[in-house]
Amino acid sequence: MKFPLLARMHEIKRRLAPVMGDLGVRPKLTSDEDFGLRVAFYNKAGDIACPVAILISEPTTAGWETCTLVRAHYSRHTVGHNGWTHFHDEGCLTEVDLHADSEKALETVERQMREAGVILMGGGHSQNTLNWDMVRVFDEFEEQTGGHAIPITCERREDIESLNFIDGNDCHWKVEFSEFDAVVFADDKELGRLPSSDAAQVVTFVASRMAFPDISLGYD
User: Fold this and answer.
1) pTM of the model
2) Packed helices 199-211 and 132-145: angle between N→C axes, nearest 10 degrees
């Protein structure tokens, strides 16, 4: 076989067509310093990916026995009550040495792709956040309020993301996430800046200011 790499790509496109169609991705041959030559799976725009790749250690030899499947594990989190999500990298990989038989090898790839599904890449999706601190603050609100007691919405304005809700006094509360800070506003008045990584502290601060609105907001 004179072009084993092209032959592998042809097999991938043929054998994995059903799962790639279901997930809306297609194979892309790429390389980097960490994994070397590999086949990854993205949509045409490159902002949706299946977190499964085929590492090709011997591109000039035929067969799949020199290839390894690598799958990154992500967890999907709901953020707010208006449809936002976050895909969190769990920091662990599954590695499987592929079988020499192409059908068995690509059957393994298909199974892992279906289990992994797709993740949203980058910050270009209107209802996807990359901010893990924002997720943890929302989860802390949910835990302290018993869930859905306060409808919380996510917003993004000029690349600044925030959690928003209205309390029983029709006061609009907003927690903006700016670099490492969580900035708390009530009716557009800044009340304080806290480390965004400390979700409990952020939510406790908001709760304490809600308990004494006359002092916090300067009402007469």
Assistant:
1) 0.82
2) 50
